[in-house]
Amino acid sequence: MNNDQLWEATLAELELNLSGGNFKTWFGQTSILKNENRLIEIGFPTSYARDRVEQRHYHQVKKVLDRLTQKENELIFSVDTSPKLPEKPFGPLFEGGKESQKGVGLSLNYTFENFVIGNCNNLAHAVALAVAQKPGQAYNPVFFYSGVGLGKTHLLQAIGNDIIKKRRGLSVLYCTGESFTNELLDSIQSGSRKTTAKFRKKFRETDVLLIDDIQFIAGRETTQEEFFHTFNALFMEKKQIVLTSDKPPREISKLEDRLSSRFVGGMIADMQAPDLDVRIAILRNKAKNSKTKVPNEVIDTIAEGVETNIRELEGTFNQVLIYVKAQGLELTPETATKILGNSFKKRKVVATPRKILKTVGTYYTVKQKDLKGKRRTKEIVRPRQVAMYLLRNLTELPLTQIGDLLGGRDHTTVMHGVGKIEKLLEENLQIREQVSVVKGQICG
Ligand code: ADP
Ligand code: MG
User: Fold this and answer.
1) Å from CA of 153 to ligand 1 middle
2) Nearest protein CA to atom 14 of ligand 1, as residue
3) Atom of ligand 1 lying closest to residue 155 CA
């Protein structure tokens, strides 16, 4: 395996295991710059992406690389100012982008052209197209909702990409509810009026505001207040607002009424799980972009095997291709079925936050009250950090919500706790065992 292939295989695995829809944002345009003497240097297009991945995923990246190389590596994360893209035999997953698009948080892979339409999503798609053609005039605000992995982020970013491509001059801003929250809190924490003013200007002076997973601001008073004013400022100026969420506005718990009533005042469209034909079309599209020839029967087998979620469908497809290539097998429906069987068993895990907290508490004999409480003795701090780590890795919850679950802690505290455990997992056998036992009990 050369470095490009190694990195490609690593990314394919990481995509399956990392939570959240932002995988492509953080790992897009990355590559292995150097790989010598068990030192692997990974290049990122921006320091922001580098820091983020280093803080959150060092351990996960290392684990995959170690296994694929059969070595104990040390990783260096650096910023690569002259990104050279690796070859991409598995489709347009990690394609590079123009500066303008990247600058506003968009990934170029999410376009209307590669969005497959079916009964499950045709209303949402039509609305998105209309919005891209007439921002601020067709429908405003627009609200898309669906379960995970059904194309909300793709469609939202397709709007942004299309507007940037065709209507030069209009400014587009994409961000998640989570980063809106975090940026706001950071700007408030900085205590400088200039920083808060900058935040406001950024969000209130864009022509098109795309906020992904808006449900994340629910339950947070300051963020909702700020978003309310952002919304009004943009709306009055007839600027386009598009939001996505996992539920319709009225069903998002702890979302203020004044917000949900504004959200329902515009166009709402849901997206459903794709039927077999759409799943096949999506995979054929992917296969067309890949260097490997994928027989139709293999595509059918995978499409029949993965029903509920497009992200999972794509992940399984990648996994099958990589596995077959690595093992030198022939790509047949039989091999695909075998791999499908394995990865399903491994990945059918439902971990509720409640279960995670309970299991951690029982394992370390720490009361729930103490896990969530203020005490900072070693006997409590470590289990609390393990809980943060597991909540971050076994659920899709954002840092802010994990902080809430643990007695209203700040997102930076959670980030620190998660990082601490990730570090210990590398150095400390005892912790590694503990975490693996607890994980086993949760997922078992
Ligand atoms: P969500 O935001 O709803 O969780 P995403 O937009 O992240 O889902 O979609 C998950 C994956 O599935 C992405 O890689 C996306 O490109 C792909 N996908 C979703 N819907 C479609 C579609 N209709 N056609 C092609 N690919 C799709
Ligand atoms: Mg998403």
Assistant:
1) 7
2) 311
3) 6
DSSP per-residue codes, 103-114: HTT--TT--STT
Which atom number of ligand 1 is nearest to the Cα of residue 150? 3
Residue 386's nearest CA partner among 327, 432, 321 is 432
Per-domain residue ranges for the chain?
A: 3-79, 93-271, 276-347, 353-443
Radius of gyration of the chain (CA): 22
**N- to C-terminal Cα distance for the chain?**
34
Which of 258, 223, 225, 264 is closest to 245 using CA atoms? 264
DSSP 239: -
The CATH superfamily label for domain 93-271 reads P-loop containing nucleotide triphosphate hydrolases (3.40.50.300)
Which CATH number applies to 276-347: 1.10.3720.10, 1.10.8.60, 3.40.50.2300, 3.30.470.10?
1.10.8.60
Quick one: pLDDT at residue 5? 84
Ligand 1 pocket mutation pick from 310, 312, 317, 396 by most atoms within 8 angstroms of CB: 310
Residues in the chain, pLDDT under 50: 83-99, 345-348
**Residue matched to tokens 């990730």:** 422
Q: Three-state SS for 396?
A: coil
Q: With a threshold of 0.90, does the pTM exceed it?
A: no
Q: In 3D, which of 178, 158, 232 has the Cα closest to residue 200?
A: 232
422 C-alpha to ligand 2 centroid (Å): 25
| Phi, psi for residue 209 in degrees, rounded to 5 | -110, 120
Instruction: Compute, in angstroms, the gap from residue 318 CA to the centroid of ligand 2.
Output: 19
CATH number of 353-443: 1.10.1750.10
